[in-house]
Design brief:
It contains 19 helices and 15 strands. With 477 residues, it is of the alpha/beta class. A five-stranded parallel sheet has the order 3-2-1-4-15, with helices on both faces. Strands 6-13-7-8-9 form a five-stranded parallel sheet. Helix 4 crosses helix 8 and helix 5 packs across helix 8. It comes from Roseovarius ramblicola.
């Protein structure tokens, strides 16, 4: 009888890939986790209980067939595991690296609830697809036939690229417009290399380009080309811009030199990693080397900033968050990694002002948690008289992002938006109030996760194919 490869969680403990020491991590921007060896990947995949109701799958935005590809990995059938994995996910090796698994699949693992430690789903997912690339199992995009219809996609982030992949595989002509000089959106310029090395993203962009997708880069829609021009050139248009307008602080001294936006800071750092010339980095404006750094915010962007500052050689890095640790929106795993690397977290702390120009201190107001707000979270409120100064040479504002006013910027008054400024789009299809125009990802949801953008892009591409097919049938009558 063949040996049972699964249900090993009783005898085998949870074991992540080896993590480099904090001291080694501080020296570079390489990813912090090593790759699983084949035997270790099989062992850890074999801890899956193959439960009848896989909560890991239902809590994954893409509903990945996680138990199936874990079983195939445990059985040594890695190519089949990859084939199952990529059926539902355009970029599994990216999700394996940057998804907050502790809040999604792994956080809902049945054996975790039973006290055995979750299956290391993300690490196995990364291993499967990295191996697929190495072994040549990742097939090029090669549609069986070409269609005459074309789709213009505005935004080369995860939502736009996922949609482009689905559309090109169906033979639809695709042109992707993006304001940056490289595709990838925040995966390229927002997320640091220690979480997502850039060759992983560029490899997917190259796959799309070789598969016939056209990229029009350094193209700011509304300035370099109008929205109407794009609409007139294509049978359908997909808005996948993400949200890039930074939320700001209102506090005395906030305009001082040395107080910068997270998106500018992270983009500069990532450009340097590409070998680009970045004057703002060279001048020290967007470089933490030798500085006392304070980051304001508690989300994943704030975690990216504090950990980047450590690697740039900051003398100290402090994160101010107005709520406590249990109520912060960022990944707890990222907080733990940051603490290991030397970041100091000041919980229940908010900036009430800034001293000096250039900035030399942050006035820190201590907070307490009061009554719940509309979302159910306890609202932070200031403790009277509890203010202290924290020295700072560089302050990074990581307070989240808001949508740009596209109806005005693109002269599209009929493009309906919500009261939050996000584009109003139909659930699961992305259809907007403009005929033939769809929208996906953060520009619809507000700032969210890469995995949700991929889901939206795939869903909208399916709706576009359905609508193009319907239009073709009407034209043929």
């Amino acid at each position: 009888m063949a040996k049972q490869p699964m249900l090993k969680f009783v005898s085998v403990g949870r074991d992540m890939p080896e993590k480099r020491t904090a001291e080694a991590r501080r020296q570079d921007f390489h990813e912090i986790y090593a790759e699983y060896a084949d035997a270790k990947a099989k062992e850890q995949a074999g801890r899956c209980s193959q439960c009848g109701v896989p909560y890991c799958q239902t809590h994954c935005p893409l509903h990945n067939n996680i138990p199936d590809w874990l079983r195939l990995t445990a059985e040594g059938r890695l190519k089949e595991a990859y084939e199952i994995s990529q059926l539902t996910n355009t970029f599994p090796e990216i999700c394996g690296r940057i998804c907050p698994q502790d809040r999604l699949c792994e956080g809902n693992c049945v054996i975790e609830q039973a006290g055995h430690g979750t299956v290391t789903i993300g690490a196995v997912e990364k291993y499967i697809t990295d191996t697929a690339w190495e072994e040549g199992w990742v097939e090029p995009i090669s549609p069986t036939s070409e269609r005459i219809e074309s789709v213009g996609i505005i935004g080369a982030g995860p939502g736009g690229l996922a949609a482009a992949d689905v559309l090109r595989r169906a033979g639809v002509q695709v042109t992707v417009y993006d304001r940056y000089d490289r595709a990838g959106g925040l995966m390229t310029y927002g997320i640091p290399g220690f979480k997502l090395e850039k060759d992983v993203v560029m490899r997917r962009v190259e796959q799309l380009a070789q598969g016939g997708a056209e990229f029009v880069l350094d193209c700011d829609v509304g300035t370099d080309i109008s929205f109407d021009e794009i609409r007139n050139k294509h049978n359908a248009v997909l808005i996948a811009t993400g949200v890039y307008k930074s939320r700001d602080l209102e506090a005395p001294g906030v305009g001082a030199t040395g107080i910068v936006r997270a998106i500018d800071y992270l983009t500069a750092s990532n450009r340097v990693s590409f070998g680009d010339s970045v004057p703002e980095f060279d001048s020290g404006e967007l470089n933490a080397e030798g500085k006392q750094v304070v980051v304001v915010g508690g989300g994943d962007t704030a975690m990216d900033c504090v950990r980047t500052a450590v690697r740039q050689g900051a003398t100290s890095v402090t994160c101010l968050y107005r709520r406590d640790r249990d109520n912060m929106p960022g990944s707890q795993r990222e907080v733990a990694n940051a603490e290991e690397e030397g970041v100091v977290f000041e919980w229940l702390s908010a900036p009430s002002g800034f001293a000096g120009d250039p900035v030399n201190a942050v006035r820190v107001q201590k907070m307490r948690l009061g009554a719940p707000d509309a979302t159910g979270r306890q609202s932070p409120e200031p403790i009277e008289g509890a203010v202290e100064d924290a020295p700072a040479d560089l302050v990074i504002k990581a307070l989240g992002f808001e949508p740009e006013d596209f109806p005005t910027l693109w002269n599209q008054k009929e493009l309906e938006v919500t009261r939050w400024g996000t584009v109003k789009a139909e659930f699961t299809t992305g259809r907007t109030t403009l005929p033939g125009v769809y929208a996906v990802g953060d520009i619809v949801r507000g700032a969210s996760l890469v995995v949700w953008a991929i889901r939206d892009g795939r869903d909208a591409a399916a709706a576009i194919l359905e609508d193009l097919g319907a239009a073709q049938a009407i034209a043929a009558e």
